[in-house]
Amino acid sequence: MIQNITSRIMNSSKYLRELFMKFFISRSHLKIPSGPVIVKHNLYNQSDFTCAGVQQFIPILVGEQEPPAKRLVNSQKCIRLNDKDLVGYDDQHHTFFEMLGNWSFGDCSKAEALQFVWEFLTQTLSINPSHLYTTYFGGDGIHDADTETRDIWQMMGVPNTHLFACNAERNLWSLGDIGPFGTCTEIHFDRRMINSKDKKSKNNESQTPINFDSPHLMELWNIVFMKYNRHRDGRVTPLSSPLIVDTGMGLERLCTIMQNCNSTYETDLFQPLINRMSELSPHNLTYQGHWGHEDSNEKDTAFRIVSDHIRTIVATFAEGLHITSTRKYARKIKDLFKKTAIISNTKLGLERGSLAKLVPLITKQLGDAHPDLRINERNIIEKVANEERRLWAQQDEGFKHIENILSNLTRGDSVPGNSLSFY
């Protein structure tokens, strides 16, 4: 435990984020701010929310705009609500996360891009190469295998036992059915090395066959070589630059490794939130880190869900989202807000109105990297408090309405479903 606390202090999320930026700035990358999490102009059938760092660069990729520089780096705020039902029940997915990314628009070769990645992981962060596994695109009958990437990894010293050819589902990356796409190469970390006594040993080679769907392996970094654009009519054409490098690494997952944690929820990105919820709980609940059948009452799952979802709520409220809006994306956040408030109250025993007390922890944690959160803190707190009051008021009124309906029922009566809906 002492080792974990020390690792969190030495490898704080703020430190790791800044280290990433400095590394690429020193290699001629221009630092740019995060794009918004709410997608204003839904081009190429993108999602309602920014789900990848490259999303804001699509006009550049298809040749409609010029990049501010040939090489860029940033930490992008991302939201993926398609993962919301996994949140809390597994230890890797989040609805809100930060994507550390760097890009090159025709100015960086594959070899140089992969050298940057490997140098940052194995030299700057001192991660043991024997704990890393890499993949590359093995071909699919339509697109040729990316043997160039395979050869580069081999020349850099990655052994064949840690280098795997995978299919299009894993190593042909795109944002959707239309738009830019290309082959990719992933780097996975063997999580069995976390808290291992011989974590630094060069002879700690696992004899277990590699399964990339195994919870033991955490996808850490994805390097995409964007080369093509798929149009609405099915045509595939080359992109404006001969090779566009697009990389993304989840900050939460990096913190898990560097802070010697068993899950993202034990990192400094989530522990302050979880500890604050413990303080607010009248039952003196503490987070135990239990999963599955060990978390029989799902208290720990509730800690994880609330700490994740409130970050998404804060990020969207900072950009002026009103969940009373009729827009589809507003309804999604409204549903997420309702779920968060109810779980915090029924599972953790937090008093109504407690969610607003979590906001300052998030703005403090993320405000330096994303100033819009800090600047809008007071407004976010007010919006969260007002929305929670409205939710509980409508729910109380709704239950009274239901009780009134039920009290007047006689045998054989039916109740229209729409008369039971509220909020």
Series of H and E elements: HHEHEEHEHEHEEEEEHHHHHHH
Q: Any idea of the CATH class of the largest domain?
A: Alpha Beta
Give the termini distance in whole angstroms: 44 Å
CATH homology superfamily name of the largest domain: Bira Bifunctional Protein, Domain 2
Q: Taking Cα atoms only, what radius of gyration do you get, to the nearest Å? A: 23 Å
**Averaged pLDDT:** 89
Describe this entry's structure for a reader.
This protein has 423 residues and is of the alpha+beta class. The chain has 2 domains: 2-199 and 208-258, BirA Bifunctional Protein, domain 2, CATH 3.30.930; 270-402, no CATH class. It has 13 helices and 10 strands. Strands 1, 2, 3, 4, 5, 6, 7, 8, 9 and 10 form a 10-stranded mixed β-sheet that branches. Helix 9 runs antiparallel to helix 10 (328-346). It is globular, with a radius of gyration of 23 Å. Residues 197-209 have low confidence and may be disordered. It is an enzyme of class 6 (ligase).
Task: Give a quick precis of the structure.
By secondary structure, this protein is α+β, with helices and mostly antiparallel strands. The chain folds into two domains: 2-199 and 208-258, 2-Layer Sandwich (BirA Bifunctional Protein, domain 2); 270-402, no CATH class. The chain has helices at residues 2-10, 13-25, 58-61, 110-124, 147-155, 168-171, 251-258, 271-280, 299-317, 328-346, 359-366, 371-375, 377-407; strands at 30-31, 71-79, 96-105, 132-137, 163-166, 172-174, 179-190, 217-230, 236-238, 244-250.
